[in-house]
Amino acid sequence: MAAAVVVSAGDVGPAWAAAVLTRGERVLATEVAAGVVRVPYEPGSLVARDGPLLAAAVGGLHPRPDVLLLAAAGRDHPRRAGLALHLGADLDLPTVGVTDRPLLAVGPPPGPARGDTSPLRLDGAEVARWVRTAAGARPVVAHAAWRTAAEVAAGLVLASSSGVRTPLPLREARRLARDGRARRGRP
């Protein structure tokens, strides 16, 4: 069972995190946590800003997921430990980051077919992979994070994408977090 978690927030103030647990194409459980973001957005420092709210949303999921997908970097980070890695360590849960582009790593783009991947390296180590989740669509980056390797991250992202660009758990978590923000106003 895979889960994803996403935060919807402005720069500082009210925020909502949503977690979605899936098995294949089926949503098994959801959780929305409301809180306040006290630290402004700063690239590379999301753990202090979003970590506690994300952990609260994941903690409300039952049953516990086998792996967690986040819209965040893992080892492709200036300190080799982005939000996906930190949250996984805090929750003792394998994690994979999924982003539109690498943070620091470099590598050639993947081929044009669904399932094509190519390595992204930082200081010679493979820290992520480009993954083509749908034929002709822009690839996403699958980040190795807590207890995952780049190859495993790419496989999980591909398996949960079902031929569309963004993996289903992340799409659903993003929708729920935005809906929570729109409906609930201030936490």
UniProtKB/TrEMBL annotation:
Compartment annotation: Cytoplasm
Segment forming the signal sequence: none
Gene Ontology CC annotations of this record: cytoplasm
Protein known as: Endonuclease V
Gene Ontology molecular-function annotations: deoxyribonuclease V activity; RNA endonuclease activity producing 5'-phosphomonoesters, hydrolytic mechanism; single-stranded RNA binding
Gene Ontology biological-process entries: DNA repair
Coiled coil region boundaries: none
Major localization class: cytoplasm
Presence of the UniProt keyword Transmembrane in the record: no
Keywords: Cytoplasm, Endonuclease, Hydrolase, Nuclease
